[in-house]
Amino acid sequence: DSGVTQTPKHLITATGQRVTLRCSPRSGDLSVYWYQQSLDQGLQFLIQYYNGEERAKGNILERFSAQQFPDLHSELNLSSLELGDSALYFCASSAHDTQYFGPGTRLTVL
Amino acid sequence: QKEVEQDPGPLSVPEGAIVSLNCTYSNSAFQYFMWYRQYSRKGPELLMYTYSSGNKEDGRFTAQVDKSSKYISLFIRDSQPSDSATYLCAMSGDAGGTSYGKLTFGQGTILTVHP
């Protein structure tokens, strides 16, 4: 157990819908990262937050957004969902040099 | 061309074998190198972490980094069926704490260790 929690574990929704994925980092970690894992693209970095502020962006679609709250938990919002958004979404947190991953949320868009 | 290349395998070995997993990369800014293990449908689990060039050993696992060749390796000695998983190499140019520590991953190598 990495200490990073993610909810929900599974999400099934329809195209065009909007969903919110939630992540709680390890106790004391200020940085939160979001990654998307798909069969064809592998694990891809989406976005990083540090103590409530956005720090780095990867190839995150404009339909996706994230935020980190004062209690340091983070949410990833995915809107206007498409079939191709079906993937595993992971959150990771870090205090220094290493990132610890949560168990992921499996999103299926039908 | 991808920044990090990793042979996806699959790799199948008998129990007790020495396993060698490798990644090459093109971005000379990478300084931090990691290996993660991922069991099916689970989150990646950090196995090894190395800064810059050199070797690091932890039990049955040895990580090697050769920055001059842009090549990293993970060796698993006395492999066990419980080692069966996908192994992902990952790299970053900055520490993950306060800087831009995004990780760039290889595609992952699927390893099966059979009894």
Structure write-up:
Chain A is an all-beta fold and 110 residues long. Chain A is built from no helices and eleven strands. Chain A has strands at 5-7, 10-13, 19-24, 31-38, 42-50, 53-57, 64-68, 74-78, 87-94, 100-101, 105-109. In chain A, strands 2, 4, 5, 6, 9, 10 and 11 form a seven-stranded mixed β-sheet that branches. Chain A is globular. The model of chain A has no long low-confidence stretch (mean pLDDT 94). By secondary structure, chain B is mainly β. Chain B is 0% helix and 53% strand. Chain B starts with a strand and ends with a strand. The A-B interface holds A 2, 4, 30-31, 33, 35, 42-45, 48, 50, 55-56, 58, 88, 90, 92, 94-104, 106 and B 32, 34, 36, 41-46, 49, 51, 88, 90, 95-108.
What is the multimeric organization of the chains shown? heterodimer
The N- to C-terminal Cα distance of chain B equals: 37 Å
Largest sheet of chain A: 7 strands, mixed
What's the overall geometry of chain B? Answer: globular
Q: Would you report the number of β strands of chain B? A: 11
pLDDT under 50 segments of chain B (min length 5)? Answer: none
Number of helices of chain A: 0
Q: How many helices of chain B?
A: 0
What is the global morphology of chain A? globular
- Please give the share of residues in helix of chain A: under 10%
Unreliable spans of chain A? none
Series of H and E elements of chain A = EEEEEEEEEEE
Strand content of chain A: over 45%
Topology of helices and strands:
The complex is a heterodimer of chains A (110) and B (115).
Chain A: E1 5-7, E2 10-13, E3 19-24, E4 31-38, E5 42-50, E6 53-57, E7 64-68, E8 74-78, E9 87-94, E10 100-101, E11 105-109
Parallel strand pairs in A: 2-11
Antiparallel strand pairs in A: 1-3, 3-8, 4-5, 4-9, 5-6, 7-8, 9-10, 9-11
Chain B: E1 4-6, E2 11-14, E3 19-25, E4 32-38, E5 45-51, E6 54-58, E7 61-66, E8 71-76, E9 85-92, E10 104-105, E11 109-114
